[in-house]
Specification:
The chain is an alpha+beta fold and about 200 residues long. It is built from two helices and five strands, in the order H-H-E-E-E-E-E. A three-stranded mixed β-sheet has the order 2-5-3, with no helix packed on it. Strands 1-4 form a two-stranded antiparallel sheet. The radius of gyration is 54 Å and the shape is elongated.
């Protein structure tokens, strides 16, 4: 078949772009726009992942402040407990010293009575009785009065019964004999009096 003498039109060259730039063949002659934003990948954090949110920072700061206050409170409590223990031991030492000092005259008088053992027996008995009265007075000053009364009604808060006797001349339930005196009252009782009580019918 004979070749057509007329060749097809070739692509006309692209018009020159102002500024001397030339578009490569086959590309659109539109003006280039702004460069596309790079896509964030898994390895590179985006602009929103630059740091923790302000709320998280405030929460962490508050937690640290509370922990510091808690630790300071524990330290203050431990110091208070140690100081209280020291003060309590000091008060006990002072009270023991005061009590021992109150009994020193009693001990002195007992030694004085023993030094006159060869003297008249009646004088020795009177001296020992005086020392006993002095010791009873010391107990009373310390808040522990002596209870050795007979003829009073039995009181379970103040008396401890060790025996019961049948005595028709005494009202039943009456203390007829004190075997060991008691000292103190109520919450400050050192011991109850050991007594013998008349039998109840």
């Amino acid at each position: 078949m004979p070749r057509h003498p007329q060749e097809p039109d070739r692509a006309t060259p692209a018009e020159p772009v102002p500024g001397g730039a030339v578009h490569p063949p086959g590309e659109d002659s539109r003006q280039p726009g702004p460069p596309p934003r790079p896509q964030a990948t898994n390895d590179e954090p985006g602009p929103d992942a630059a740091g923790p949110a302000p709320a998280e920072d405030e929460h962490r700061t508050a937690m640290q402040e509370l922990e510091d206050r808690w630790r300071r409170a524990l330290a203050d409590l431990d110091n208070l407990r140690k100081r209280h223990a020291r003060e309590l031991e000091r008060e006990r030492t002072v009270e023991r010293s005061r009590t021992a000092a109150a009994f020193l005259p009693v001990l002195d008088n007992l030694e004085l009575a023993l030094s006159h053992a060869d003297a008249d027996s009646d004088a020795i008995v009177e001296g020992i009785r005086a020392v006993r009265d002095q010791a009873v007075n010391v107990f009373e000053l310390l808040g522990y009065p002596r209870h050795a009364e007979t003829g009073v009604a039995f009181d379970p808060a103040r008396h401890e019964v060790v025996s019961v006797v049948d005595d028709p001349d005494v009202e039943p339930g009456t203390v007829v004999q004190v075997l060991r005196p008691g000292y103190g009252d109520g919450d400050r009782q050192l011991r109850p009096a050991t007594v013998t009580v008349a039998k109840r019918e």
